[in-house]
Design brief:
9 helices; Quinone Oxidoreductase, Chain A, domain 1; 2 domains; 5-stranded antiparallel beta sheet; 21% helix; alpha/beta
């Protein structure tokens, strides 16, 4: 099969490699769509290191097959698998957890002590085929894609599930005022989901003017330059005097976190993994949230796939 291997910082090569066998109790998928996560971009630029070598069919690869936002067609099923059949279109949550550590037993598998993932510890979706281990079937990480949802939308199930998990953790709902710091893809999903859940006011900050235009087009009430000296004053001038109720914290700007924007009892969810020069960044993994309810982050419940079309039809 053909695979796009990350050979080193700034270098991806299309190479022919062996097709993986179908794992016992697992699935072999023919990849139809695979999203590009910010973590993939960081790996490409050398800001995130993959230390474990990737191997396919017993052959160690000269690079790494990244990509974990995967949608594909079931090519083959492993022995004992009766819940999926060849030809079905599915999406896969990439997190491989042990199920036995303290965190997993508490239902907080997103902070499993032995956390691994497709696209990092195992070959991922930037290839024609990907092997799905039995563990991912066992814990419900593989879901059929409903009729009418394209694979290119379905591969957004993983980032959307993380956004749902984050907003569940802080209880965004009707009438809330919400601040999203940063206007990248995950922030846009947070904006759309907050609107879907009935938030009455959503503000977004970002230093990039094009991104601010994008979130305005997606329905942000306010988009503010996060590098502007008067950012806090602009936000305060647009808020209820009591302040913000909820916040999705992508990054903390060097100028400092505007704590006075939050009303008493307001809640914040940190969701940053890495930053750029000049930023102070929350170093906790994005799978960890304040008041974490312990639900798996990257698994989109089967009854919520309609959100992929309803949040933004295009």
């Amino acid at each position: 099969m053909n695979a796009a291997l990350l050979m080193g910082p700034g270098l991806i090569e299309l190479i022919e490699v062996p097709c993986p066998p179908c794992p016992e109790g697992g699935l072999l998928l023919k990849v139809v769509a695979c999203g590009v996560c910010g973590s993939d971009i960081r790996a490409y630029h050398g800001r995130k290191q993959i230390t474990q070598k990737h191997a396919v069919a017993g052959q160690t690869l000269p690079g790494h097959i990244i990509g974990h936002e995967i949608a594909g067609v079931v090519e083959a099923v492993g022995s004992g698998v009766a819940s999926f059949h060849p030809g079905e279109l599915v999406t896969v949550a990439p997190s491989i957890t042990c199920g036995t550590c303290d965190a997993c037993r508490r239902g907080q598998s997103t902070v499993c002590q032995s956390y691994q993932a497709l696209g990092w510890h195992y070959p991922g979706g930037f290839a024609e085929y990907v092997a799905v281990p039995a563990r991912l079937l066992h814990d419900g990480s593989v879901n059929r894609i409903p009729e009418g949802v394209s694979a290119w939308k379905a591969c957004l199930a993983e980032p959307l599930a993380c956004v749902i998990h984050a907003q569940d953790a802080i209880g965004i709902g009707p009438g809330d005022s919400v601040l999203v710091l940063g206007a990248g893809p995950m922030a846009c999903l947070n904006l759309l989901l907050a609107r879907y859940r009935g938030a009455s006011f959503v503000a977004v900050t970002d230093p990039n003017a094009c991104r601010r235009d994008q979130v305005r087009a997606l329905g942000a009430d306010l988009a503010v330059d996060s590098n502007a000296a008067d950012m806090v004053q602009v936000l305060l001038g647009s808020l209820d005097p009591a302040g913000l109720q909820r916040g999705h914290l992508r990054r903390l700007q060097h100028q400092g976190h505007p704590r006075r924007l939050w009303r008493d009892g307001g809640r914040i969810v940190p969701a940053a993994r890495a930053g750029r020069p000049g930023e102070r960044v929350l170093r906790s993994r994005s799978r960890r949230y304040l008041d974490d309810p312990g639900r798996p982050g990257p698994v989109l419940p089967g009854d919520q796939y309609s959100l992929l079309g309803e949040l933004h039809p295009s």
